[in-house]
């Protein structure tokens, strides 16, 4: 077993899991929900999606050969809520994730210790992956939190329901015993 290849396999699954939390949240939201924000200092889910996608496309396009902060990126514009529909938002979401996951899937063990730059700052590929894991999980967590607040009693849980931990554990134990 090669440690680098094992790491890449694990991290690909972790990122897919993070994306899945966002997908399951977005599927529960209405057209109005995606634009809701608590106050002017807050971001709507639509804005968070634009920012994530903008980051992914900038960081992961020509990943090994160009700086991760591309000249085509307008980061400030990512924080303007000008998305016209939930479907447009989903298209933006998927474009970012596809750019990122396609690049991640192409990486090989020997790439992990190569140097890349983000805003002229050197990072190993390994560092860049970990940096983005923290960033993407942070923002998807915001999406889930906002979605949960908006849906209230209509929220379909993405994990073990409250009060069901022991039942869940017993199901898992039974599954692994058979």
CATH classification class: Mainly Alpha
Instruction: Tell me the radius of gyration.
Output: 18 Å
CATH fold assignment: Four Helix Bundle (Hemerythrin (Met), subunit A)
* Strand order, largest beta sheet: 1-2
CATH homolog superfamily = dinb family like domain
Order of helices and strands: HHHEEHH
In terms of DSSP E residues, the strand content is under 5%
> How many runs of DSSP E, i.e. beta strands?
2
Please tell me the overall pLDDT.
94
Major β-sheet annotation: 2 strands, antiparallel
DSSP helical segment count: 5
How many discrete domains? Answer: 1
The CATH architecture name reads Up-down Bundle
Coarse morphology: flat
Could you name the ranges where pLDDT drops below 50 across 5 or more consecutive residues? none
Distance between the termini: 28 Å
Helix content: 55-70%
What structural class should be given to the helix and strand makeup?
mainly alpha
Q: Can you describe this structure?
A:
The protein has one domain: dinb family like domain (Four Helix Bundle (Hemerythrin (Met), subunit A), Up-down Bundle). The protein is flat, with a radius of gyration of 18 Å. 22% of the residues are buried. The chain has a two-stranded antiparallel ribbon with strand order 1-2. The chain is 57% helix and 4% strand. Helix 1 packs parallel to helix 4.
